[in-house]
Amino acid sequence: DAGVIQSPRHEVTEMGQEVTLRCKPISGHDYLFWYRQTMMRGLELLIYFNNNVPIDDSGMPEDRFSAKMPNASFSTLKIQPSEPRDSAVYFCASSLREDGTGELFFGEGSRLTVL
Amino acid sequence: SQKIEQNSEALNIQEGKTATLTCNYTNYSPAYLQWYRQDPGRGPVFLLLIRENEKEKRKERLKVTFDTTLKQSLFHITASQPADSATYLCALVGAGGTSYGKLTFGQGTILTVHP
């Protein structure tokens, strides 16, 4: 398996533009997580899905952020409109179990810069 | 509020020595604790998991301890090598309540092993 695949790897956009980040989890993994990493706040959990259903989105910063998982092999994280403070590296991860006994497999991340 | 602290942002040691990284937590009842390694520009990679009823876990040159009384985990790398240089993250999984199943990460410790 190729692992968790994220795209784009880098995105530079201007404030106010819509940003869509994409993730393909490892086949067979029932859980998908979106994290954001910044120097100031480290790795923060934004939202996670189980069998394509959002379970906990309490980490989503505000209504400008939305995430979907239309099927088991694809998820998107959308920011609309984007702001400079959204600049960060966004990671997608998948796991066989969400109760902590299963390791998380992370993608390489999408580095977002909002000017 | 719940807090995870990893000792010092950076740790520098000489090749061949043992590196010891600390993860302390407060206001938490973790069921599991995981350690990850992150290289620059890459996603975190799982290393070890230890359960709350386990005192110690080993994997090759790695050793993790978990003391729920002290609310602390120690991560040791013996016979360190320059290739061990990376950021090491601890992550806790809550045992219940709103933190159940969520993997919360510390800020990480940057380890540099000098030849």
Give the tally of β-strands of chain A: 11
Fraction of residues in β-strands of chain B: over 45%
Q: Which structural class best describes the helix and strand composition of chain A?
A: mainly beta
Uncertain parts of chain A: none
Estimate the global geometry of chain B from the Cα principal axes.
globular
Task: Report the β-strand fraction of chain A as a percent range.
Answer: over 45%
The mean pLDDT of chain B is 89
Q: Please name the two chains that share the biggest interface, counting residues whose Cβ lies under 8 Å from a Cβ on the partner chain.
A: A-B, 22 and 24 residues
Radius of gyration of chain B: 14 Å
Order of helices and strands of chain B: EEEEEEEEEEE
Which key terms come to mind for this protein?
heterodimer; A: 115 residues; mainly beta; seven-stranded mixed β-sheet; four-stranded antiparallel β-sheet; B: mainly beta; 11 strands
Structural summary, described in words:
The complex is a heterodimer of chains A (115) and B (115). In chain A, 0% of the residues lie in helices and 54% in strands. With 115 residues, chain A is mainly β. In chain A, strands 2, 4, 5, 6, 9, 10 and 11 form a seven-stranded mixed β-sheet that branches. Chain A has a four-stranded antiparallel β-sheet with strand order 1-3-8-7, with no helix packed on it. The N and C termini of chain A lie far apart (36 Å). In chain B, strands 2, 4, 5, 9, 10 and 11 form a six-stranded mixed β-sheet that branches. In chain B, strand 9 (86-94) and strand 10 form a beta hairpin. Chain A binds chain B through residues 4, 33, 35, 42-43, 45, 48, 56, 58, 91, 93, 98-101, 103-109, and chain B through 31-32, 34, 36, 41-46, 49, 51, 89, 93, 98, 100-108.
